[in-house]
Amino acid sequence: MPQTFLLTYNPTRWDWTDREETLRAIQTSKSRGFLHRWSAGPHPRRIGPGDEVYLLRQGPEPRGIIASGEVVSEVQQDKHWDEDQGLANYVEVRWTTAVAADDPLPLAALKEVAPGQNWHPRAGGTQLRDDVVTAVDQLWRDHAGR
């Protein structure tokens, strides 16, 4: 049964130079999705093909969800995005929905519908609790579809 995870992006830790172009590409390729590799965090056995993911922007405001999609690969190890860190776990994601990085689904709204969820993970790969997935999904659909 598919699970739902948070992948993370923090602009103070990584300079995602083609961020806006990538987010626009996701927005314009909804029917087929946009494949893009992303760091899956330190728990490689928990995430895999068929799992749903949200991309959570962390760091300075505005913070919140900026994209969603589905994992389409097993976890693969490769050089860490921060070259001094050794290896990292990555998955291919078929991103299907995105908003501008400066217009995320706000963290405050997420905390309101899912107050017990960890919305400040130290790394990607944090699983959404089963009891909050439906509420977060509806909030995201409303935000991304407006």
TrEMBL record:
Pfam families recorded: EVE
Residue stretches making up the EVE domain: 5-113
UniProt-recorded name of the protein: EVE domain-containing protein
